[in-house]
Amino acid sequence: MSDNDKFRFRFKQFGINDSECAMKIGTDGVLLGAWTNIEQSHNILDVGSGSGLISLMIAQRSSASITGIEIDKCAAKQSIENINDSPWSNRISIINSDFIKWASISHNINKFDHIVSNPPFFNNGPISTFQSRAIARHNNSLGYEQLIKLSKRLLTDDGKLSIISPIERKDDIIFYSELEQMFISRLTNVYSKEGGKITRILWEFSKIKCATEYASLSIRNINNSFSQEYVNLTTEFYLNF
Asked: For labeling, which of 87, 113, 147, 211 is most exposed (least CB within 10 Å)?
């Protein structure tokens, strides 16, 4: 089997299979993996690591040690296979566990200088009958409130939390971050298309009070081609950029 046939998704330096993962690879994960500022990060936690996409993107961009935590057994198993096929298997470890339970273990406190997560998006609406997909898509098991609260517990004093969310959850996330005294250090509004509406927000939080760095990003131009800013952000990964 050739490398081109081995993976469902092929990036410039690694491949991904996500056939056993409830949530498939999408633009959100690629955006977060490329956008997260990891220049000063050495020990990183990927919460809800899924297929291992974000962990692998961060490994490509850094020399950090990365821990992924994934509640779904099948996704965790497949992510380990993806990581073992990558150049960075010695720096990435995957834990198959419930993040909420795992984060309560005392020896994990203040361990990470960066936490990254592409968390569940939906807090209402019908729940999928496919349990793994329901867990991945809904925040019944892990919501933004718990993610922010537990991340603060696990971060070093100068650590950062980076997440992506739909615009509809903006007020909730601001409320929960203020409640936990986690300060917004970076915020990027994401437009699916130039001139359209904001669809996603990329967030970076700090335990240290700081000014917020605001930015915006359009994925596509008006003519539906990829914008230069999106190409610049993801060019290390996509084969066609």
From this structure: 211
Nearest partner of 51 among 80, 92, 30, judged by Cα = 80
- Write down the H helix ranges in 18-169: 27-35, 53-61, 73-84, 99-103, 131-137, 144-154
Name residue, tokens 């990891």. 38
Q: Which residues of 63-86 are buried (b: 16+ CB within 10 A; e: fewer)?
A: ebbbbbbbbbeebbebbbebbebb
Q: List 94's β-bridge partners, or say none.
A: 68
Block residue for tokens 């089997």: 1
Confidence of residue 22 (pLDDT cuts 50, 70, 90): confident
Cβ atoms within 10 A of the Cβ of 33, count? 26
CA distance 62 to 74: 27
pLDDT of residue 142: 76
> 190-210 burial by CB neighbour count: b if 16+ within 10 A, else e?
bbeeeeeeebbbbbbbbbeee
- Distance separating alpha carbons of residues 72 and 120, to the nearest angstrom: 13
pLDDT tens-digit map of 44-91: 999 999 999 999 999 999 999 999 999 999 999 999 999 999 999 999
Q: What six digits make up the tokens of 199?
A: 């669809």
3-state DSSP: the chain helix, strand, coil percent, rounded to 5?
35, 30, 40
* Whole-number average pLDDT of the chain: 90
Decide: 33 and 54 in contact? Cβ < 8 Å: yes
Rounded Cα distance between 224 and 50, Å, is 29
